[in-house]
Amino acid sequence: MTSAPLSPDAIEQALNAQVVDKEGRSHQFGELVQGRRTAVVFVRHWWCGVCQAYVKQLHKVIPPESLGSTSLIIIGCGGAPPIHNYIDLTQTPFDVYGNPSLDLYRAFGFKSNLGSSKPGQEKEYEKDLGGSWARLWHGLKEGPMRHIGHAGSVGPKAQNGGEVVFEQDGSVSFFHRMEHTADHIELKELAAALGVQAGQADPAEAVACDSGVKV
């Protein structure tokens, strides 16, 4: 499933946007994707458990060694302070950046809402995440109960993301916008878009999410 194509102006705006790494250093987004094929996964706020589950399964289904010369990075809509904890929680081997200005999210037209999957239409990566109370408890435990000092830099709760694949020449070959809080592209579909053999995610390792109950 591919969203409507991006305009050249939107791509140019995105390439000029600034992101921050886990140490708070600023980088131009274009420098991260320039000259090499790059997949970019845009997640929601740093305390979003559904995105944490997606990122935790990401390197199981698409191992770094399967990507060859293709790069994969993760960008959230919050600031730098929570990134270290996000990496620790998800155990992701991929580089993680923040876009607290939301310039990238606006350039790509990512949607802002608090909708969730309808019963029976859940994505594969969210099917084993437990019910609303389990998701709420996880959101509280891994968010404000543990890192209350990060509350001001986790990013807006309603901001959704998506997935973008830049080719080496700077063109966009794949683009997907999340329609709601649990609408990341299926990992096997992302693997297919990248031309890699999908691995197997371990549902038992998925973390609970906050979809359905917003914390």
TrEMBL record:
Report what the protein is called: Thioredoxin domain-containing protein
Q: Which Pfam families match?
A: AhpC-TSA_2 (PF13911)
Q: Which InterPro entries match?
A: PXL2A/B/C, Thioredoxin-like_sf
Q: Which domain of life is it from?
A: Eukaryota
